[in-house]
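Run Efflux transporter outer membrane subunit through structure prediction, thanks.
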Amino acid sequence: MVLALSACSGLTSHPDRVNRHAQTVALPTSWQETLPQNPVLLSDQLLDLIDNPQLTRLVQQTLAANYDLRQTALRLREQQLLARQTDAARKPELNLNLNSQRVKDSIITNTQTLSLDLSWEVDVWGRLADQSRAAEATTQARVLDYQAARNSLAARTIQRWIDISLREQVIRAEQQWLQSLQSTEEVITERYRSGLSGSNGLADLEAARTATARIRASLAAREQVQRNAYRQLAALQGIAGQIDLPNPQLRPDIENPPLRLPAEMIAHRPDLQSAYQQILAADAQAAVAQKQLLPSFSLSASLSQTRPDLNDLLSGSNAWSLLGRLTAPLFNAGRLKAGAEIAGLQAERSYLAYQQTLLNALNEVEASLGQEAALAQQQLHLKAALQHSEASLAHYQARYRDGLNTILDLLNAKQSAFDARIQLLQTQQARLTNRITLGLALGMGV
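Sure, done. The structure for Efflux transporter outer membrane subunit is below.
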C-alpha cells in the first residue's frame, strides 16, 4: 500500500495556470466604431435583415442539402456516441460467458462453464468523472461548431444571393449603355454616309465603334462571372451546374443588424462559446492525465456453474467469487508523467486559442462597423457624382446636337455617367454584403 500511494508524489501542478489572467484579452465596454444610424430591428436572425421569401427558401434548401454541413452533423453525432461510451465506463459492466473445453489426458474430459461476470472500477479520485466532463464539454463544443457552420453557410448563401442580385442590375445597366452606344454609332454612320459629319466623320465612327467593342467585352466578362456565381450557389446545395433562381429581386436597401455590446456579442457567437467549451474539455482531460498517476481500485464478481454436459449447466450449486484489485503505477519510464504534462500544455493551448478567437471576433466587428461607415460615405458621394455626370451628359448631348462638341466629348460624358452608375451599384453591393458580415460577427444566425 505504501508503494502504491507513493505514485501520488508524481502529481505536478498545471503548467502556467497562474499566468492565465495575465494572458486575457481586455474586453471593451463599447465599440470604437459605431453605425451611422441606430437600427430598429430586434431580431437575431440574419434572414430578417432582408425578409425575402425567395431568399428564405434558398437558405433553407442550402442548409438541408449542403454536403459540408451534413458531414459536420455526422461528426456531432459521432461525438455524442463517444460521450455515451465515456460515461458508460463509470458504471458496472455485466457479461454472460459460456466456455466449452475438451481435454484429452488419460481420458477425454469435457467441461462446460457458464458464468455471469461483473466488473466495476471504483472512481476514487474522480478520474472517470473528469473523463465524462471532458466528453460532455467536447460534445457541447461540437453542437456549437455545428451551429456556427450553419450560420456561416447561411451568411455565404445570403451574400452570394446579394451579389447575384446586384450584378444582375449592373448587367442590365451595361446592356442599356451598350444599346445607347449602338444608337450613337448608327447616328454617326448615317451622318457619315450622308456626308454631314465633315472630315471627322470617319474618326468619329471609329471612336464610337471602339467604345461599343469595349462595352461588349466588359458585358461578356460580367455575364461569365454571373454564370460562375450561379454555379457556386448551386455547389452549396450539392448541385452540379447552375441553380434555377429566376429573377432575384433585392430591394434598394436592407436593415443594419442590431448593434450588441461586446459582452452580448460573446454570449451570441457560437464559435466563442465552442472555444470556451474546448477549454473546459482540455482542463478535464488534463485532470484525467494527472490522475493516471494515482492508484486505481476495481471490483470484480463472478457467479459460475461448471458441468461436463451443457444440459446440466443450470442444475446444482453455483460457485461465486469476489475480487478487489488495487493497481498503482510504479515504473513506466516517465510515460504517464509526460502524458500529464502534455495534457496540461494542451489545456493552456486551448485557453490561448480562445483568447485568439475572442480577439479575432472583436476585430471582425470593429472592421465591419468601420466598413459600414466608409461605404455609407462612398455611397453618398457616388450618388452625387451620378447626378452631376447625368447633368453633364445632358449638357454634352445638347451641345453635340448643336455642333458645338465632338463625338469624343459626348462619348466621354456617357462613359462618365455609366461609370458612376456602376460604381454606385458596386458600392451598394459591398455595403449590403458587409451588413451580413457584421450581423454574423455580432452573433446573428439562423
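The first strand starts at residue 93 and ends at 104.
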